[in-house]
TrEMBL record, chains A, B:
Record's protein name: AcrR family transcriptional regulator
Pfam family, one: TetR_N
Keyword Membrane among UniProt keywords: no
Lineage, opening ranks: Bacteria, Bacillati, Actinomycetota, Actinomycetes, Streptosporangiales
Taxonomy, superkingdom: Bacteria
Keywords: DNA-binding, Transcription, Transcription regulation
Length: 201, 201
DNA sequence: GCTGTAACGCAACTTGGAGTTGCAATGGAT
DNA sequence: ATCCATTGCAACTCCAAGTTGCGTTACAGC
């Protein structure tokens, strides 16, 4: 607890180094992936000596985990526009924005280049997926109540149908992901839901 | 060229070793991923000495690439049942079968744990995705001609909509992927296409 | 502006897996 | 039974991870 009170000194240098290292780690993740990320490479890019990294972070995994730590800063509010169409569009757009931002791209790079089971990365994944999905489910529930979607529409299935095309392009094909992708994903999920293809089993 | 004629001897031992090493490589890929795959680990599992691997394969990358080489054996015929619904169902089912089979799981593990840019792996990916997608496009074209789908439906978009939920579960969530997944993916893609959400822009 | 101390730079380690080499042992085809 | 390609084995080099001891720098407080 209160780490501020008994170590009030030397915050300037430390903070600068930490930020530089975080930025360097994210950049290396995006450029080379986790497998090819070396501690010396990060140190060099951050303009810092290797030993300094090992004094502040336990190992390579901690380094990456910490750089990805506060994904909560990227967390977006859940829309409630009164229309399922614009709600879904908004959800898709913020997903695209998140995953094309540097931190999102670094998270993807980490998760899909060998760091999937690193504790910190797995936690970041949970934060971005599970939590976000759970928080978005009321959007679907409200649409069902308003009669915009068929009774029995599965919120989880609909949200997965919304996100799947975006991730498919990000991970499998390598097609550009932009607002048009979000738009089409929203329309696709909406059409399927209206047709009753996303009902609870 | 004719490698059979001037090296007719010693095929028995070599073939046995090759098969054992291939199997061991695929197993290690699935269990640990590419990043954590060690040559000594493969050698140990295959019951073979490390040096033997380095004499038959140039390096770790070649080892993995060769183990994944003949994905053509997994290639499935393109359905033409006369109905887009059963065609899509069949496509989704064979996709699920392919990706839950040992070789498919190993391919996924290789592609998404650090070996994405290894030449042989990239080629296998191309073979499984691009080629297969291109070959499946006539299925959609025929359905449009039959009037089952709206004019202007984009074959590529429809096939991506079909595959996306499957890969989403395989790669992002870790939900089980089975016939039900295939069924739902087919219904989802079909509903979206019928609603005109997958038209060419 | 001076000083004390925490944080940093530096060099020299150990460890472990990739990849190599020379030589001895083995086993299948003839 | 013999031959020789293939395999087993041990002893290497190389590189990045991670560690340690000590000298150096730069900020906080006075």
């Amino acid at each position: 607890m209160d780490s501020e009170s008994h170590r009030p000194r030397q915050v300037g240098r430390g903070a600068k180094v930490r930020d530089a290292v975080h930025a360097a780690t994210l950049a290396e993740l995006v450029e080379k992936g986790y497998a090819a990320l070396t501690v010396e490479g990060v140190a060099l890019r951050a303009g810092v000596h290797k030993t300094t990294l090992y004094r502040r972070w336990a190992d390579r995994e901690s380094l990456v985990a910490d750089a990805l730590a506060d994904l909560s800063a990227m967390d977006v509010p859940i829309p409630d526009t009164g229309s399922i169409e614009s709600d879904l569009r908004e959800l898709a757009r913020s997903l695209v924005r998140m995953m094309t931002a540097p931190k999102g791209r670094a998270l993807l790079a980490a998760m899909f280049s060998g760091a999937a089971d690193v504790p910190g990365v797995a936690e970041a994944r949970r934060q971005v997926f599970d939590d976000r999905f759970r928080r978005a489910e009321p959007v679907v529930a409200r649409a069902v109540e308003r009669g915009e979607l068929p009774e029995g529409t599965d919120p989880s299935e609909l949200l997965k149908a919304l996100a799947a095309p975006v991730y498919f392009r990000l991970l499998v094909t390598g097609d550009p992901v932009d607002e048009i992708t979000a738009e089409r994903a929203a329309l696709l999920a909406l059409a399927a839901a209206r047709a009753g293809a996303l009902r609870r089993r």
